[in-house]
TrEMBL record:
Entry annotated with the keyword Kinase: yes
Gene Ontology terms describing biological process: nucleobase-containing small molecule interconversion; pyrimidine nucleotide metabolic process
Keywords, comma-separated and alphabetical: ATP-binding, Cytoplasm, Kinase, Nucleotide-binding, Transferase
Record's GO cellular component terms: cytosol
UniProt source species: Chitinimonas arctica
Signal peptide (residue range): none
Record's protein name: Cytidylate kinase
InterPro entries according to UniProt: Cytidylate_kin, Cytidylate_kinase_dom, P-loop_NTPase
Length: 218
């Protein structure tokens, strides 16, 4: 039986992770947060003192990554890394290791292994293009850069971090530019993906839209 996959790609802080997790919960499907694998790789490499542009060494870290995905919890080498990987510096590191082709190759099968019955909702940058090109539904989920910066700002403030919104916007734009410009698996809106611009949408409506698309596609 082919395993149904909903691929949700989009830029950072677009809310795709929240939407993807909620769609998965609503359908009773598995969920893949592919960005977490790049974040964990960056974190593990840094912990070993490996330079993030050392492609061979970082790809070995990726291939041997000891990560466990539990419900609402992510372990790295048995330790809770759920909060740690959300750190802005880890996100920055993730986007650095993500440009390395050998790292992407090392993580490919691991991502595909998440596809199990009754289905999978996967979010990232290349879910529809590289990891699950045969996905039953492909969504490109985005929001204006200023709106994304403001969402990230509120998240960080809620966590008690002192942040500067102009700086956040700058970081977001820099990361988007790197994700789009890289030669391997760049962030792009595929011709067969449906566009979901959430700039003025609530999470509830965004989730409902994806569920409606899935219903009409299946
Ligand atoms: O989605 P998230 O912000 O957690 O991803 C962190 C970084 O990992 C992104 O900026 C991107 O460079 C990289 N990434 C990727 N391909 C994916 C998911 C994430 O290159 N499928």
């Amino acid at each position: 039986i082919p395993i149904p996959v909903i691929a949700i790609d989009g830029p950072s802080a677009s809310g795709k992770g929240t939407v993807a997790a909620r769609v998965a919960a609503a359908l009773g499907w598995h969920y893949l947060d592919s960005g977490a694998l790049y974040r964990l790789t960056a974190l593990a490499a840094r912990g070993r003192g490996i330079a993030l542009d050392d492609e061979f060494a970082v790809s070995r870290v990726a291939a041997q990554l000891d990560a466990t995905f539990l419900e609402g919890m992510i372990l790295l080498e048995g330790e809770d890394a759920t909060e740690l990987i959300r750190d802005e510096r880890v996100g920055e590191g993730a986007s650095q290791v993500a440009v390395l082709p050998a790292v992407r190759t090392a993580l490919l099968q691991r991502q595909r292994d998440f596809a199990k019955l009754p289905g999978l909702v996967a979010d990232g940058r290349d879910m529809g293009s590289v990891v699950f090109p045969d996905a039953s539904l492909k969504v490109f989920l985005t929001a204006g850069a200023a709106e994304r910066a403001s969402r990230r700002y509120k998240q960080l403030i809620a966590k008690g971090e002192s942040v500067n919104i102009a700086r956040i916007l700058e970081d977001i734009e820099q990361r988007d530019a790197r994700d789009k410009a890289r030669t391997v698996a760049p962030l792009q809106q595929l011709p067969d993906a449906r566009l979901l611009d959430t700039t003025e949408l609530s999470i509830d409506i965004a989730v409902q839209t994806v569920l409606d698309w899935w219903k009409s596609a299946s």
